[in-house]
Amino acid sequence: MFILGITSSTIKPIPLTKDVYSSGYRQPNSKLCSKVNHDLLALMMVTSAPGNFVDRQSVRDTWGTLVNRSDIVLGFVIGVTFNENYEEDLENENKIYGDLIRSNSVDSYKNLTLKSLSILEWASTYCRNAKFLIKTDDDIFINIRRVLKFMENHNNSSRMIFGDVAVEWTPERNERSKWHLPKHSFESDILPNFTRGAIYVITRDIIDDLYITALETPFLWLEDVFVTGVVAEKLGISHKKIGTVVLNNKFLFKYHCKLKEITAIYEVEALDKIDYWRVLENSDKKLSHTRWWRILGVCDVTQTTRTSGHPVLPW
């Protein structure tokens, strides 16, 4: 097990990723993809922390409901926890939903690269019948119908990573930053082009290459930069923008009429996921936050439902 913890006073040589990655699974849930006997359009893998049950449930209740399609599989990837209460809760949760995958690496923010590698390993080992691998997080709201349509339109793509592409970004050298990347970990002052970790989609034909090459590459804790940037660049893999990916905040609500044009929203709480989903599904159920109704006028909504009196969203 490995937890990365580097300070200015404890600088050590950067190890190869294979020297810090623990392959295999405490709970592989290996039959998740083999439940179907045909090719899948997508394997959707959601990284999640052990205690994030509410976030996982909000995914299951919103965009994750599309797993009812026979060509989609959804799994939540969770690392090792030493909290006995979490362990018991996770066991019970998996008995109910059967969608948890438990990797062998300690679950921590600094170990997200190891969690992403466990996704690649799992897809390579247990789900070779999926045309695309979607990697996302449990605080992301995905306009899943838009993403699935995008994949259907790119069904013949090869050696490609789709996502929110970051071009010629500079590494964060501020030690106080959440994304601090010290010079000894990454010397260049320009990051390789990468797709941000909120959501990225990988074509089937590069999963094995990414996993094998990553193991032989010096470890970098920023998982999106490492997997879709450093490793992808070694392999000559191309990137393509998947659509609009935005931050969730109070200003986003005034754009709710544009939700169908947004691909994904990151840093989304559970109640917001439910509200976004109801808007996308054109539901007349009461939304969780009254602020939605206060700003509906922005969209010039003039109609109301006959039964509830609530405004009808204009799409």
Describe the structure concisely for a colleague.
By secondary structure, the chain is α/β, with parallel strands linked by helices. It is 27% helix and 21% strand. It contains 8 helices and 11 strands.
β-strand amount: 15-25%
Q: What is the helix fraction of residues, given as a range?
A: 25-40%
Secondary-structure element pattern, one letter each? EEHEHEHEEHEEHHEEEHH
Strand order of the largest sheet: 1-4-3-2-5-8-7-9
Secondary-structure-based class equals alpha/beta
Output the number of helix runs: 8
Estimate the mean pLDDT confidence.
Answer: 87
Return residue spans where pLDDT drops below 50 for at least 5 consecutive residues: 1-8, 290-315
Any idea what the shape is? globular
Radius of gyration: 20 Å
N-C termini distance = 50 Å
Please provide a written account of the structure.
With 315 residues, the protein is α/β, with parallel strands linked by helices. It has 8 helices and 11 strands. It has an 8-stranded mixed β-sheet with strand order 1-4-3-2-5-8-7-9, with helices on both faces. Strands 6-11-10 form a 3-stranded mixed β-sheet. Strand 3 (72-80), helix 2 (84-97) and strand 4 form a beta-alpha-beta unit. Helix 3 crosses helix 5 (207-215) and helix 3 (112-126) packs across helix 6. The longest helix has 15 residues, at 112-126. The radius of gyration is 20 Å and the shape is globular. The model is unreliable at 1-8 and 290-315 (pLDDT under 50).
List keywords for this structure.
21% strand, disordered C terminus, 315 residues, 8 helices, alpha/beta, disordered N terminus, globular, eight-stranded mixed β-sheet
